[in-house]
Write a structure and sequence with these properties.
Keywords: Sensory transduction. This is Arrestin_C domain-containing protein. With 391 residues, the chain is mainly beta. It is built from 2 helices and 24 strands. Helices cover 2% and strands 51% of the residues. The strands form 6 sheets. Strands 2, 5, 6, 9, 10, 11, 19 and 20 form an 8-stranded mixed sheet that branches. A 5-stranded mixed sheet has the order 16-24-23-18-21, with no helix packed on it. The longest helix has 4 residues.
Amino acid sequence: LGVKNILFPIISPPARALFGSIQGGSGTVGLHSEKMPKEKTSKHVKCDIVFDDNSSGIFSAGDHVAGTIELQLSKIKKVRGVCLLISGYSSVFWEAKVPDGPKNKKVKAQFKGREDFIKQKLYLAGSENGTGIQLPPNAIRYKFDFAIPPSAPTSMEGKYGHIRYLLQVTLERPWKFDHKFQQPFTVTCEADLNKNNEVLCIPTKAEDMITFYCGFCRSRPLIVSATTPKSGYAPGETIDLELFVQNSSKVVVSEIEIKFRKILTFTSQTRVIGQTQVPIEQKNIQYVVLEVRKVPSIEGENDARFVQNFVVGPVPSSETTHSRIVHVSYELAIVVKPQASTKRMHLNIPITIGKIPLAGSAMPYSVSGGIQKLESTLGERDCSAPPAYEE
């Protein structure tokens, strides 16, 4: 990961006339969102971070990223240094009641985890151990460039964790609060379905059977099967789900509900109770329903066949390999509800979403619209305290 910087001479035009602040979009942030420290505004310092030839701030894993940082000072500013931090990481956090102690009394525990994909710190001016420098008024520009690792996972936001990428410029002042300016950017991975096509291109089938009792008498079976022609899809393709219901019983099937949903799996690395921290892997799962379909009732001693079509929207690719603590997967979840019975049939068909479709499939549309982009926090921040976590 190489980063270069160049200090340019002072430029007189106002910085914001030359570079508009890049906004990261309006992606939804889950309940896990890290609290940003309270702003300490200063009318004397402004900062713009601009990516070269990329106004969207969306990049692919393996891309080379370059841009310009411009500081606009209205007066001389003394600092220890101007630092650029380039970071890409996954983070998980949630709280839960767990048994603890000799009496197994339930207490509040925190489950945490963090994994870094990019972590580069560079001083554009000054140094970490320097005695201080004076930044002149008006505009100062710094150039930067770096490479995103080819194995970097796609950006995502969830209730119990996230994958984020961020540029942070800090004017370090140990004798006062630091001036911090942040610019998030979005990363998407290639996710070529053809790398695993021997599994993804074959039909997938799920089947279940139940019987009902009336006293000591058992009914004939209710059999439900669900089939898709393949399990790998790209945005823009259609999932053709075929349901076959063989109802040999006299019980009416009141409803069959089908959910196309995203599954976010978060895995902790540590558990904290009070002052005690121990390494532990604990999973927490969030289900995000993308689409729901229902089929009509089926009378007893009847067979029925249904076909449901689900168009894959601009959603992030499945992610189960590049991050150890945050996984993204998809499935068709089918629930069969017999009338006047508490019994339920559950069928699940895993679906893999990729950016590049299987060979011979229709070309998908761009997935960039479905990637959650973070709101720019390109404001001055007091980050003297570590970020707080909340569920």
